[in-house]
Amino acid sequence: MRHFGPVTYRLGREADIAACLGVWRAAVDDYQGRLGMPPLPEETGPIRRHLTHMLATDPDRFWVGEISREGREGSGPAEPWLVGFAVATVRDGLWYLAMLFVLPAAQGHGIGAALLDRAQAGRDTPPGGPAVPGPDNALDTEIHTWGMATDTAQPISNAIYARRGMLPRLPIWRLAGEPFRWSAVPDLASGLEAIPFDSIAANGRDGPRQLAEAVGEIDRKVLGLTHPSDHEFLRRDGRAGFLVRERGGRVLGYAYGSSSGRLGPVAALDPDLLPSLLGVGIRQTPILGTVGTWVPASAEPAIRALLAAGLRFDRFPGILCWSRPDLPFARYLPINLAMV
Ligand SMILES: CC(C)(COP(=O)(O)OP(=O)(O)OC[C@H]1O[C@@H](n2cnc3c(N)ncnc32)[C@H](O)[C@@H]1OP(=O)(O)O)[C@@H](O)C(=O)NCCC(=O)NCCS
């Protein structure tokens, strides 16, 4: 596509998700292929469910860009062509970009920036220039922190975010493999216990509230925010959560595992508890294959423990870009790169 007409921007809908995933696949395979990396796996179920969840919680931050049939060169389908999309969430004052992708043939024409404007503003930008909130221009929003995770191999996206005050600050590594040195992710000390979220939630009428309060308290202390809708999504999506506390006493953290091998999120009041929280996530879930999780470089005990257990660094690291210098990731492993 060398020439194309004006791009129309509108809010995304559930029916757009398949086309968005097509853009994502084309954009990632294009630059990763040039770096000699393999294409993305065929399976898109988990990412589709994530997008559906984010569309439900933040419908005004899911934007697509499309070009009409008249605006394109040559022949092609009559319906508008979706060439890019942006998805962001806001949780308790944290704006977080989940995905921003533009078809390779349409890149470098300002479409990515225009989508980002709208995902930041949460509305269409007015004629005569965008009024976009951000780290340097709070406008009237409640947002106090702006962030996302990018790919170290992607100077373009890192540059777009850094220019808007979200600077690349912290590596985040995917660690994957089969643990074989179990002592590195040890059992909980004898004074501690791990309680499945499901058994707390099933504890009478008050169960769900007690669970939400306990998890929310940890999130507030560790991350500085709560995100109950994401915890609900994780449980619906088949991840199993465990609350770790002093026997009958103070809650110290939580960990999620899943039969697909995805570990996390993991949160610990004391970072030295991260190795045994990871041990809880691995041991308490019947895992069908290898284990994988994203670990910010500042969560040092978790990186050391997983490497010692036998997991390996997988591919290039991501980078957490953040509007503030104080990132809350020394005691926290996020859900994945798209969701804190
Ligand atoms: C990243 C992406 C979404 C950007 O969309 P786009 O439509 O190509 O971007 P735009 O044309 O709006 O803006 C690109 C900007 O980056 C700038 N840029 C490009 N390379 C750069 C570099 N190495 N250093 C600094 N700036 C750079 C361009 O100059 C341009 O800014 P300008 O318009 O002010 O001149 C798109 O390129 C893409 O999908 N890439 C592949 C997938 C990806 O990496 N997605 C993000 C995952 S975190």
If you had to describe this structure to a student in words, what would you say it looks like?
With 340 residues, the chain is an alpha+beta fold. Helices cover 30% and strands 25% of the residues. The mean pLDDT is 93. The relative contact order is 0.14. It is built from nine helices and 14 strands. It is globular. β8 and β9 form a beta hairpin. It folds into two domains: 137 residues, Gcn5-related N-acetyltransferase (GNAT) (Aminopeptidase, 3-Layer(aba) Sandwich), CATH 3.40.630; 153 residues, Aminopeptidase (3-Layer(aba) Sandwich). The strands form two sheets. Strands 1, 2, 3, 4, 5, 6, 11, 12 and 13 form a nine-stranded mixed beta sheet that branches. The chain has a five-stranded antiparallel beta sheet with strand order 7-8-9-10-14, with helices on both faces. It binds coenzyme A.
List keywords for this structure.
alpha+beta, 2 domains, Aminopeptidase, 340 residues, nine-stranded mixed beta sheet, globular, 9 helices, five-stranded antiparallel beta sheet, binds coenzyme A
SSE diagram, text form:
Elements: E1 7-11, H1 17-34, H2 45-57, E2 62-67, E3 81-91, E4 94-102, H3 111-121, E5 145-151, H4 155-163, E6 167-177, E7 192-196, H5 197-201, H6 207-223, H7 228-236, E8 240-246, E9 251-257, E10 266-268, H8 274-283, E11 291-296, H9 300-309, E12 312-313, E13 318-322, E14 332-333
Parallel strand pairs: 4-5
Antiparallel strand pairs: 1-2, 2-3, 3-4, 5-13, 6-11, 6-12, 6-13, 7-8, 8-9, 9-10, 10-14
The chain binds coenzyme A (COA).
Coenzyme A (COA) binds next to helix 1, strand 4, helix 3, strand 5 and helix 4.
